[in-house]
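Q: What residues go here?
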């Protein structure tokens, strides 16, 4: 059997579920909430850092050959033979390869790899993951195309909102800014459930303005918090 995912507490689940139900009581919009530990492994970032480190190491060896030849002499106790140009080039390349492998091995530690990932890349990967999840579980799943996904990626301390066609046509992305700020602030304080609930409340207020609750308004998408 698959292992149950637990990124947040049972209390967080309850807080978010109650917030979604309360928000949807005033709108025909349907809010889906999803939380993930991390959106991407950033393996390519580790490869880039390793390549940059190896290139810099080989460049320094080429720019300051006397210094590195001195290290070579020290290691050989002065008994090493005089290196030819090709032999020296081979040593420089080997030095770069060792440097690449060393950095790559260090960056197998995920927290460091994540810390060295530029913020813009994190934001793009979180957005891409949110869009993928939206297409699978929210897009065109309501009769009025009024589904909206709130996605939180914990380790990146980032979140995103992806709205279905009808909502996107009336609500500009920047309108969700206050909801996102409330979410991220509380996540950084170690309160992911309260952060998502605050965001849901803000989203519900926006949706109620543009998509007020009608007489026939079935609950088409789950209110519960989804963990992946």
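A:
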């Amino acid at each position: 059997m698959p292992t149950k995912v637990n990124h947040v507490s049972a209390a967080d689940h309850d807080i978010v579920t109650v917030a979604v139900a309360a928000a949807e009581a005033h709108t025909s919009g349907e809010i889906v909430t999803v939380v993930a530990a991390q959106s991407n492994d950033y393996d390519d970032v580790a490869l880039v850092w390793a390549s940059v480190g190896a290139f810099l190491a080989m460049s320094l060896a080429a720019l300051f050959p006397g210094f590195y030849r001195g290290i070579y002499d020290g290691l050989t106790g002065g008994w090493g033979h005089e290196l030819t140009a090709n032999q020296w080039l081979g040593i420089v390349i080997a030095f770069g390869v060792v440097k690449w492998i060393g950095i790559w091995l260090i960056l197998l530690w995920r927290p460091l790899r994540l810390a060295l990932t530029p913020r813009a890349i994190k934001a793009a990967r979180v957005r891409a993951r949110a869009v993928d999840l939206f297409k699978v579980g929210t897009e065109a799943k309501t009769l009025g195309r009024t589904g909206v996904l709130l996605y939180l990626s914990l380790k990146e301390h980032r979140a995103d909102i992806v709205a279905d066609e009808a909502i996107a046509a009336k609500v500009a992305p920047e309108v969700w800014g206050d909801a996102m700020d409330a979410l991220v602030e509380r996540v950084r304080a170690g309160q992911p459930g309260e952060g998502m609930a605050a965001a849901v409340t803000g989203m519900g207020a926006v949706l109620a303005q543009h998509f007020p609750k009608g007489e026939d308004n079935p609950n088409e998408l789950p209110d519960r918090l989804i963990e992946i």
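A: Context that may help when evaluating the design: The CA atoms of residues 40 and 192 lie 19 Å apart. Residues 85-106 form the longest helix (22 residues).
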